[in-house]
Amino acid sequence: MKSIKYLFCTAFCSLLLLFTVGSSCAQQADDYQIVVSPESLKLQMDETAQLSATLQGANGNVVQDSVLFYSRDRTSVSVSQTGKVKALQPGTFELQAVAMSPDSNRINKSIQVVVSYPPITAISFQDLPKQLYANSKIPVKLSATDAKNMSREDAQIQLSSSDPAVASINEFDQLYAQKPGSVTITAKTADVTAQQEIKIVENPVTDIQLQNDAQNTRSGDVVHFDAQPLDASGEVVNDLPVEYTFTAQPDDNLGEGTSGQIKDDGRFVANKPGLYTIVARAGNVSAENTIRVDARDIQKELEVVGHGLVSDVHTSDLWVWEGVDGRDYAITGTWGGNGETYFWDVTDPANMSIIDTVTVDARTVNDVKISEDGRIGVITREGASDRKNGIVILDVSDPRNVSIISEYTRGLTGGVHNSFIYQDHVFAVNNGRRYDIIDISDPENPATVSRFELDTPGHSIHDVWVENGIAYSSNWDDGIVAVDVGSTPNAQSPEQHSTGVGSLKNPVKLGSYSYPSGWNHAAFPFKSKSTDDFYVIAGDEAFPNGLFVHDKPTIPAGWIHFVKFEDGWDNPKEVARYQVPEAGTHNFWVKDDTLYIAYYNAGLRVVDISGELMGNLYDQGREIAKYVPTHHEGIIPNAAMTWGPQPYKGHIFVSDWNSGIWALKLED
Amino acid sequence: MKCSFFTLLFALCVCAFQSTVAQTHHIYVTAESDDKVYEIAFNANTQQGNISDVIPVGEYPTETEGPHGINIGLDGNYWYLSVAHGTPYGWLYKFKTGSNEFVSRTELGMFPASMEVSSVTGLLYVVNFNLHGDMEPSTVSVVDPEAMAVVADITTGIMPHGSRITTDGKFQYHVSMMTDELMEINTANMEISRRLNLNSNPSSTPDKMANGTMPAPVVKPTWADPHPSQDLVYVAGNGSDEILEIDTKAWEVSRRFKSGKAPYNLEVSNNGKWLVASYKGEGATGVWNLESGQEVAKITNSRKVTHGVTISPDSHFAFISVEGVGGEAGSVEVINLLTQKRVEVIEVGKQAGGIIYWKKTD
């Protein structure tokens, strides 16, 4: 018993000792501090400063004369390990000093660095005329630059008029010319002032001649209004801006939404049938035209001809082609599965069946493509167990006995998500970073001939489509990009494009267009048969509500963007969209003037894109037909997730992520 | 006094009892082809495990972004994850442990992989593996994990991998796979302090991957782990089927052990007794006694492509991630190091990869 008591006493004393030592250590650690001189910094841009720091004990004795410095925002303020600081961007930033105390505790110290914005040194008026007509209105645009010659969008500029009775400025920086006279417009910041004299003269316009090209107008048709302000002698006054507006009397006026849209240049489109009165105003003179808009009335039914159910794995892309034996075949990929690719006989779309399966080392075969001659197939690999991925080239001349010709992984190990076959070359989207152009004229020995990669920060790529020697890629934040890879005179492109500036071995960028969401996922060239207008159609992909692989339906987002390059590759303009509410786009296809869209949860959409395009086509009755494919045995039952469409020999074949392949037909 | 004595006795009894109650080990593992991280709980008494949570990661749901490396911060409150494929660079993600709530992310280099935080600087050192890039020197990104800001990029070898830091936090070790080198970083000045060629018989065969511009690597090292208490670093020779022991004082290879096929990851137990290595090429795990230098057990895994290793701090259990092939599920396999037997297999998402021990609870 005595020994047990002794044991416990010893244990207790040991615990007490440990506690005491622990407390003592903690106290010692608190006693150390990093002393930095100066403790904080205020710098101008590009200014440098020197920090010095020591690690000191409780009594102020220096125990270490150097520390590690680093910046928490090195692109805005840099610091060397010896403490030399340089201010690179305006704002408030933090540097850190770190040292290890003798008792092995890490000591940190923050140093605040305030970098001042350079003072604004110049303000200028942008395109403000020196003369205005009375009763006209114009926005006042300004630019400001600072001492570092940087444009300053954040500048707080006050606008004022020397005589508001002659010309006044409202809170939205719009200048109203009230009556003839002279006035000085002043733009002012704390340090800088700019002024411009403006003369207001009598408005000479006495009449407006308003014309339009409306003829059997239907909803979705763009009507052009042309207003000519005329003076008393009938001469056109060119320098007076004309404003357009309209009033509407839609046929259905019961709580109806937006009925139409008019642009500054006089283009008008009605979403709904009814009477529309377009008003053109120049100063205090106006004119109006009234037009009748009828319903577009193009809707049809989509008949389900056949369905090939795939219920154990998600289905990805498809391609339908005429085989060398004259029969029709389809290939479909799989997503998040076991690397399978299915081959279907679709000669009779009512009885589609799998006739062969190729399994490769991959988790996803996202894209499947077949050469024009129907002999070569290319499938993409992601998630290969050896992380080599790349593409697999197939002999599909007998789709019932498909064989692997070669696997090509050189430089493609990061995974290929999409591909395109063009003139014996495969465009392989490589690791979401670039596309590699691979010569497969000898399919047993493929060879990379070139690569195309953007040089923008944080660039990426999702897909590529090639037509007439121009590669149209979709690049998320970087939008759509057109690259000449050997363009032909038939290239569907703006008039200004000089053909043949690039080649397969030397891809040359022509132009690009990006939009704020950064959702660009697909791109497709479209030359309108009805108007000859050239567009690149851009499609989104977005999952703001998440992607549900197994448990429930997904509600994606995004829409189709129509981008016009009528003034050349350097002047893209987004002119129209097709946006189904509460749904998201995926792949699409254009044939003639009809757009076929796999609209994920909204199924297949068939859209009339004939004529000039403006506004949201969905609102305009341009949707010809829709079908939402679901199946109760789908991998997610009764939920559509339509992946890709392809119009082919009078049918529309569609792959659906949840339920396999479908064949549909538009009913007359 | 009598009361205090019995109070102390009671307290000690409670302590003794606690050592026998159920202990649960918590682990995080990535599923690289499912863009998910799994939190695993393993009960040491029942020797059974289960999935506590599944955390989806990444930005583009229909594309595989590849969560690869994972580690826990110094205070245990956060876990950090490297995601290989970005736009085009990869990312470091930060999550809270337990709640697994996303905190923030910062962009790194190409295909970031393994990482660890230094207790000296408090900074996280993550290798940019650049697995799919050209044969050129890559970097180690140094990140302030509190601010999630990259504070430095240290140029290193080609395809750097396996970032582990010494117990004292002073040195980070990683390997340069395509130049057969072990690299040592001084964490305090964020510079490469030493590099060691691991190939005893350098090849003159040109490397096809590098278009013949450099010798083909032979050792192809894929992992480095410093011994917890000795001046030794262990390296997995993925290409030469060996495990190398490097004496960091002499800065030379002190021992070479012929191992199973294609060792990929390895870890030395906290007690310094065991080295556990994943044999990627044969779907097995090797357990080595470091004192004798003998492989005491080779345990066949439940599926192919053995990937990562993490060992409980009590040196009792090793947790192995196994990738699997194609549509097959990945797994976490638990090995009792005392019996050198596999005691549990927990299926997770496809291509189970990076794995890290978090904590033990009662």
Automatic annotation (TrEMBL), chain A:
Occurrences of domain BIG2 (ranges): 30-111, 119-199
Coiled coil segments of this chain: none
UniProt-listed SMART domains: BID_2
SUPFAM superfamilies: Invasin/intimin cell-adhesion fragments (SSF49373), WD40 repeat-like (SSF50978)
Organism of derivation: Fodinibius salsisoli
Signal peptide: 1-26
Family matches, as Pfam families: Big_2, LVIVD
Protein's recorded name: Ig-like domain-containing protein
InterPro entries membership: Big_2 (IPR003343), Invasin/intimin_cell_adhesion (IPR008964), LVIVD (IPR013211), WD40_repeat_dom_sf (IPR036322)
Key words, A-Z: Signal
UniProtKB/TrEMBL annotation, chain B:
Keyword Signal: yes
Keyword Signal applies: yes
Keywords assigned: Signal
Signal peptide, first to last residue: 1-22
SUPFAM superfamilies to which the protein is assigned, alphabetical: Nitrous oxide reductase, N-terminal domain (SSF50974)
Coiled coil stretches, renumbered: none
Protein name: YncE family protein
Source organism per UniProt: Fodinibius salsisoli
